[in-house]
Design goal:
The structure is a homodimer.
Chain A lengths: L3 E3 L9 E3 L22 H4 L5 H8 L4 E3 L2 H7 L7 E3 L1 H7 L4 E6 L10 H13 L4 E6 L3 H13 L2 E7 H6 L1 H9 L3 E5 L5 H9 L7 H13 L4 E3 L6 H7 L1 H12 L6 E5 L4 H15 L6 E7 L4 H4 L1 E6 L8 E6 L21 H8 L4 E5 L1 H15 L5 H20 L4 E6 L7 H8 L10 H8 L9
Parallel strand pairs in A: 5-15, 6-7, 6-9, 7-8, 10-11, 10-15, 11-14
Antiparallel strand pairs in A: 1-4, 2-3, 4-5, 12-13
Chain lengths: ~450, ~450
């Protein structure tokens, strides 16, 4: 038997996003750093349109997807779900392995699911330019695509190490008409301050976020657009899991285990939250596993605390697992996972025992990516290889135990722009960048104290 | 109105390939270069399995697709057909523009349609290794993918200039487990002879083909697998046009103009032949336009003659439009179009007035590619930009004439591995490589004389 595709029709694209906040017992609010009070729509509209600010704070279970957004989704959605028969055979596992593939979007990952939505609301609000951060470039190129579709300028601060590691992603942003600078840059006070301290700073998602937010705060026609972490971003990604639920129905199966790579958390959230919602409303139970890099292990080694989403401290304070907003992760190739914190919704789900987390090393991830490419044909993004690694490990565990369970993982994007990293891995030149406890402890000593606490 | 997708279901994947040879009034046979007699299955089995040799010479209209091949097709087929509404709006044209997108295959182009089929038949025949040429690497990576699926070794001779221009395509082949060397190489007598003459030779598809065939001739467990030109390759690609016919039915439309990029010719053939078949059997008439590079214009400037398919002269003699098998095209980025000849079936269709040809310059193609990426979101391969250029030119002509017609073009692959070329184009560093009449005339003076003629 060969790999099987489960394909929905266009009218099965979800009509609303699913908001896990409606089903969670509790979620700690974001706090205004000055007052220590819960952030309000009025606080957020300085950098985003009202609709997104409202979504950020919403506890409604379902939020309608605007028809224009849904129509653009239909260019690549519903995305396919595959049963990885060839991978199963290669592993000799009794496990049934499914993957939901988001790499068919024009930008090559799940990120346009939120990029298109954010560009839509900003365009409606009369905004002319969007500023953002990007790690590997998956998000930056997706927002650039959305900007091209909606006639919005896009300015991307790309983490410096990725800017140099992934020249093709940068070129993709240019091709879509966006501008892209290496971060830390000299274009913002945040960037200049960091460069003054360390001219060789490799950058981080936290730093690039500071630069983008600074731009948005200083220009009424520029807004900030976030690629992950925020509630409304996780919300937009839930089209993934909602589709997967229907596709597994077609397969007459239900996952015992759901696995997603977690950097800022929106990819994992998008796939897993609809399944957790089912469970919280009395449906099937699932084990959800967040796969994160050993070099940047916020979920497995971070502290639960209020912290800034960016390095300079321009965001509201978010309650989350964090390695400290001043932590700068090692230069692993999974640039999209180099983030000090995690989406508060994912953090809360971990605290509530709704999911577990596992840290995996870079070379074992590339090894899994290679196995996957040679069996299933799709070359995965380095971020996605983290989910594949955990899926393979679980499938091998089930083989040892002689048990068949269904595993679903998120294949968030293709690795076409990361083939330089594969080539280095094949040449034996790729090392594991371990966990640096001392650096994390220094960063944790920097955690902010919310006013009034 | 936004861009619209027309998506078929898996059971609408064609069950047979369509063979234009059945409907053409006449097709000049390939000749054995020694005897001058029509090549037979017995001649061809030296380098390919019997089933493919039979397909090469077949005049059956329909040839069944093996179920295993069709099941693998289903991983990315049926491929989507889009109505390019955003592009139409940007051009302000009354034309209805459709494109059939083949870039969703794991290797990123239409090439796996034949790669999977060829690997299947070779595996069945007990072959252990496939040798082939590749230009830009679309074909080499597709055969590498097929080799990984069927457990066959794959050895790719990659045209030297592309080998250096497109390092990520090379990395993709390695990721699939294939070996890839720059051609001309020192590994074959053909390569060594050419290097002795010109150590800086940039290579060509003709030279790389000679090297691959030499390997196949010298080892009973190695076969040659061709990426274009051959009848059976064009045959396998006809799934594209067959699907497009059904999708245009869904759109309640029929193309007035069908456009495909033409290098070896199989991409154009795959899209256009099923439409030409309809016409030849009394159905709708279509204008078919082959878009070729100005720098390598076999259809618009070549001579109709018997010529070798490769540079050294190892293939049967093929009756086709040719610039001469010793012609080495300039180093344009559309490496897949750098071929001295054209598929005999395409050549015959041009002679029969069934299609027309147009040569386009490199920079105007990249300009069209950029317009397409910013409106439709997909970054096209340099080869595909040739079809886009002609489609846009036709749409603008219709705008001038105030007429609405339906244009269908083939978007044969994405340009994710060609972003270096886009970056160069954006920086104004890309030049047009013109037509070099003197070089062509020198090559034409080299044309072989079939024995007995």
């Amino acid at each position: 038997m060969d790999t099987i595709k489960y394909q929905l029709t266009d009218n099965q694209i979800p009509t609303s996003w699913y908001n896990l906040a409606a089903d969670l017992p509790e979620l700690a609010p974001a706090l205004h750093p000055g007052t220590g009070q819960p952030a309000t729509v009025a606080d957020l509209v300085a950098i985003m349109p009202k609709e997104l600010a409202e979504q950020e704070l919403s506890t409604e279970r379902e939020i309608e997807i605007p028809p224009v957004v849904r129509q653009i989704y239909a260019q690549w959605r519903p995305s396919p779900l595959f049963r990885a028969r060839r991978l199963e055979q290669a592993l000799g596992t009794p496990a049934r392995i499914y993957y939901k593939y988001e790499g068919g979007s024009p930008a090559g990952s799940h990120k346009p699911n939120t990029g298109i939505a954010q560009a839509f609301y900003n365009k409606e609000a009369g905004i002319r330019r969007l500023a953002t951060e990007t790690g590997a470039g998956q998000w930056g190129s997706s927002l650039s695509l959305a900007g091209a579709f909606f006639g919005l300028e896009v300015k991307v601060f790309m983490v410096k190490v990725s800017y140099h590691q992934k020249p093709y992603r940068r070129a993709l942003m240019h091709t879509y008409g966006a501008t892209c600078v290496a971060s830390p840059s000299t274009e913002t006070a945040a960037g200049r301050a960091i460069l003054a301290d360390d001219p060789d700073c490799p950058g981080s998602l936290g730093i690039a976020t500071s630069e983008a937010i600074e731009l948005a705060m200083n220009d009424p026609f520029t807004n900030y657009a976030g690629g992950s972490v925020l509630n409304h971003v996780a919300l937009h990604q839930t089209v993934i899991g909602q589709e997967a639920l229907r596709q597994l129905d077609m397969a007459e199966d239900y996952p015992d285990i759901v696995i997603g790579a977690a950097g800022g958390g929106s990819n994992l959230a998008g796939l897993a939250f609809p399944f957790l919602g089912e469970q919280l409303r009395g449906g099937h139970r699932v084990r959800v596993i967040a796969a994160e890099p050993e070099a940047c292990p916020s979920l497995t080694k971070g502290r639960i605390a209020y912290d800034f989403g960016d390095t300079t401290g321009l965001t509201p304070l978010l309650k989350m697992h964090t390695l400290g907003h001043s932590f700068i992760p090692p230069a692993i190739h999974a640039g999209g996972l180099r983030y000090h914190g995690i989406a508060p919704l994912v953090s809360q789900a971990l605290q509530d025992g709704l999911l577990e987390a596992r840290a995996v090393a870079q070379t074992r991830c590339f090894d899994a990516g290679l196995t996957f490419a040679r069996t299933e044909g799709i070359v995965p993004a380095p971020e996605s290889t983290h989910a594949i690694r955990v899926a393979i490990d679980e499938a091998l565990r089930l083989k040892e135990e002689g048990r068949s369970q269904a595993i679903l993982f998120g294949l968030s994007g293709h690795g076409h722009f990361d083939l330089g990293a594969y080539e280095r891995y094949l040449a034996g030149e790729l090392a594991d960048e371990g966990y640096d406890q001392e650096r994390v402890e220094r960063a944790l000593a920097d955690l902010p104290t919310p006013a009034g606490s």
